[in-house]
TrEMBL record:
Protein name, as recorded: Ketosteroid isomerase-like protein
Domain DUF4440, residue spans: 15-120
One Pfam family this sequence matches: DUF4440
Domain of life: Bacteria
Source organism of the structure: Roseateles saccharophilus (Pseudomonas saccharophila)
Amino acid sequence: MTGSPADTELLQAFQAVEDRFNEAMVSNDVERIAQCIAPDWTLVTPQKGPIPREAILHAIRSGALTHESMTKRVVRASVYGDMAVVTGRGSNTGTFRGAPISADEWITDVYRLVQGQWRCVLTHLAPAG
């Protein structure tokens, strides 16, 4: 990023996209989350590797996974036609199978523009510390 006004506008635009995604996750509403992600979305975690969309949505639907907070500060965003790569520093809290969870991580989301809406196709997590 060169710091130009266009770069700033791009970062702000994708910050809004990421904020919408985070708010959906904190709502723990599977339908709302599904509006932010593509049908083939995959979450890649350091612990489990690739996890398909349906496994995550099932865990949320069943209550096994909940999120109480989720924030992400976008530090890089690049658009390549109808695709975008967004990297940010994020944190979240919640529960997994009744036990408290929290994370401080670097998050890279890959988005595709579908019918005028950016939908996440891949989320990759890496520990920040």
